[in-house]
Amino acid sequence: MLHMCIIVLYLLQVYVSPLAKSLMLRVPLEVKAKPLASPQLHSFLATETLKLPLDNRDNMEYYGRISMGTPPQLFRVIFDTGSANTWLPSSNCPESNVACQLHSRYKAHKSRSHVPVGHNYSMAYGSGYVSGYLSQDTLRMADVAVPGVTFGETLSHYQPAFIRTTFDGIVGLGFGEIGWRNTTPFLELFCQQHLVEHCLFSVYLRRMPGELYGGEITFGGIDESRYLGDLHYVPLSKVGYWQFEMSSVSVGNRQVAERIEAILDTGTSFILLPIDLFEELQSAIGAVIVNGSSVVSCQMESLQDVYFHVGEKNFTLSPADYVVKLETPSNTICIAGFMPIAESFWVLGDIFLTRIYSVFDADAKRVGFADAVIEEN
After folding, report:
1. What pLDDT digit, counting tens, does each position of 199-254 carry?
2. Cα distances (angstroms) measured from residue 373 to each of 32, 204, 224, 229, 318
3. Is residue 265 annotated as part of the catalytic site, yes or no?
4. 198 partner at 20 to 30 Å CA-CA among 11, 129, 326, 353?
């Protein structure tokens, strides 16, 4: 079983970073949930929604803040729709693991609500891995507490991928089909406790330079001020990832692919597509492939729009949406935000999600799309 995750670009070197969605393999685990000792649950009306602000680092990381444990320990996390598992760095990681030491670490011995699970885990990526053991504790978002969350305490981080990331860990928002066996993933646990009336969440991301307010994730509701027109829903084609069928992808009048499976993935920075279509797409938009990257002119007038046909609705990415500018002291290079993967499906990451407001409806097993309101920087 493959997991998708984040791709983080730093200047001219691509790191398939945490969650590098260059493909994360799930390691099956037989784990039975254990009750937490005296969980403290804040009261929260089921008719309300929970909105969490997200920070944006260079349009490559969109992360929010949670706490784990009692009293709360604070962390920055990617809310990752391409995974169902949750993990945080552990205070027990060795000093030699610089990537772990540079991030906030969970201290089990300081949490009154910590419960050891007693199973090891390992998650492999295209660029590395994380490994450690499982625990349970209370996860808090704003004033809402979710007791009994099973998560990985990570002892070993593959160093190049994780040293430079701002976020500490991830909270998986996928379904149990891609999670650790016999564990309840965060989203399902959150909904079981009826903390919001509807088991859905919506995502609004902003693209801008630097490290600024990057949008928000809204649990239990939809913010109509964040999109234009009506939401367009399509059913999930397979439960596990947030996976659906796209009718086609076109560049100008040229169709590149039709009837293709796609995954909505907040944990991936770019748009990933099958290798056999990658060169065709690059040629169509006016890119040149150099060392595996799609180099384009920084003068975007010569580039083509890309159209994503979802059901009967078309969504457009202009060159201004998909071109990424990489600046070094001596040079500036522009690349297109598309990368090839050895899979048959597409992965629509943040390049797509910054222009498309997205609804992830677990109750109805569907995803919704609308053109996002674009705010000026």
Report:
1. 999 999 998 765 568 899 999 999 999 999 999 999 999 999 999 999 999 998 89
2. 44, 9, 10, 10, 15
3. yes
4. 353
pTM of the entire structure? 0.88
**CA proximity to 127, closest of 254, 248, 7, 307:** 7
Q: Measure the CA–CA gap between 322 and 63, rounded to whole angstroms.
A: 20
- Cβ(26)–Cβ(180) under 8 Å? yes
Catalytic residue among 137, 168, 265, 350: 265
The span from the CA of 375 to the CA of 204, in Å, is 11
Q: Identify the helix (H) or strand (E) that includes residue 3.
A: strand 2-3
Q: What is the pLDDT of residues 171-190, one digit of tens each?
A: 999 999 999 988 999 999 99
Catalytic residue among 80, 168, 321, 350: 80
State residue 274 phi and psi, 5-degree precision.
-55, 145
Outline where the chain has alpha helix (H). 98-101, 159-162, 186-192, 275-285, 319-322, 350-353
- Measure the CA–CA gap between 18 and 6, rounded to whole angstroms: 6
Which structure tokens are listed for 38?
Answer: 């005296």
Among residues 303, 305, 306, 307, the alpha carbon closest in space to that of 335 is found at: 303
